[in-house]
């Protein structure tokens, strides 16, 4: 234990940085011709939770892997607590814990064997390693499953064990790559609780997620990342006010009325409404849910019939639509945006282009994981 | 899940005393921990030991009874020739698994965690190679036991056998660096297996392991005579059958050292590039 956590003396680092756990400027990662990460800037204040939000293939995992010294930087600068990721990788590794689909545990070993192995690798004696493992298994409610093969672990148990393995050295910075993807709601809530506890104990957490809800629940600040660049950054409140706190969806009985309905919605809500590709559904951000009353009154006055109406929390897709003018999976619209260099042109394109490229995005993500 | 009590708070990153290198002692300890992991895995999945338990039995029995009469007149006369040969062939063959398993292992998520830990970079590789010497030891033991059961009584005595065993295990460990290198550069576990077998078969069969080289065409005899595996086989025969150590043992050791000298840096470099 003592070898892991130094007494609070003055740090020997060249430029110790008390405020910033992570400072990254212009990060670039190339996989062949593909710029998986293309100039990402991140600043994470020590003691906070920072959320990196984006769809599959956006470059979230690649960014974290670079910060965690698992991938070389092809451009840009990054420091962790003032230590350079390129020049002082071994120091970085003493400061971080990494949990994600990639940095996991050994499936051939039991939970205890895994934790003992990692503890031993981190310099604990056999006795300390065993005590530490027992302590972590207890904390994460895995004591009963300690000796069972990992094959029989549920998704939630696996994530908890992954996280426990990252906490052995009590690192001040923890990377969580999509900690709750694929978990059921109850297990997800437990994971959130665990993450909150981590932060209250003094850790800094940098997490990636595909769920706006999750970033909203946990993060103090959020960066929205798309195609390897940060498209928006700010506190959750700032981000939400830019996209509206909820999202209105209406479906029309008569698709021919879609233009006039859109115009009404935009006027009443004071926000940009987007018509879905098939042309009968309209989506718009809403600041106040009660505004829906005014909207319904105006729609009735105009004689526009609705077949369906719902008010939801904005999804990642809507955040994207609102921030970038194109939807998550709409590659063609994205190319149009690049060509036109304007969000308006792109949102027009996205409204008319069928969303077909989800598989492409998934493939891109797979590529980045592999490399 | 019980609520977490991590409150005794975490030392801030800036207040930690850290160094950017791993000491040699730490590195050795890391490699031993990784070797320990390899041994647990063997215990967990005993079917992985089929190749070092069944294969020596099958090969020894099969080759002895098939070739014994034809080559040496009788099975009993063939045993002193074939047992050292089959020992070398089997143990070297089991070393191929090193590269394949390393490739499989590196494709798994846990390798990324190893890379994110402040441990010696080389430890996962060194640990895997170290743990595999246990496999060679098992294969060696089983080959000798099978030989004894079939009537092999080596004149070299216990020290000859032990010496031969150590020599074979050490040389196989050296050769496993070749497979480890393929494991680093190969795209998938099956391609690693393919390339390794392509090297392995000529190396072990084009030797004096099964038949005396003087019955072969002269060009083949030439290759067999310079094949380092032949030196190893002859050295093992000297040790087990006569209890003597000759120049062949020296050449086998020099050959093994040369393999390590070439392939260890290559493997480590390829590994570091991936790591």
Walk me through this protein's architecture.
The complex is a heterodimer of chains A (371) and B (275). By secondary structure, chain A is α/β, with parallel strands linked by helices. In chain A, 40% of the residues lie in helices and 23% in strands. In chain A, the strands form three sheets. In chain A, strands 6-7-8-3-9-10 form a six-stranded mixed beta sheet, sandwiched between helices. In chain A, α3 (111-121) packs across α4 (126-139), α9 (258-269) runs antiparallel to α10 (291-302) and α12 (331-340) runs antiparallel to α13. Chain B has one domain (25-274). In chain B, α3 runs antiparallel to α5, α3 runs antiparallel to α7 and α6 packs across α7. Chain B is elongated. At the A-B interface, α2, β6, α3 and α6 of A face α1 and α4 of B. Chain A: InterPro entries: AAA+_ATPase, ABC_transporter-like_ATP-bd, ABC_transporter-like_CS, ABC_transporter_ATP-binding, DrrA, DrrA1/2-like_C, P-loop_NTPase. Chain A: Residues 22-252 form the ABC transporter domain. Chain A: Residues 331-371 are annotated as: Disordered. Chain A: GO terms for molecular function: ATP binding; ATP hydrolysis activity.
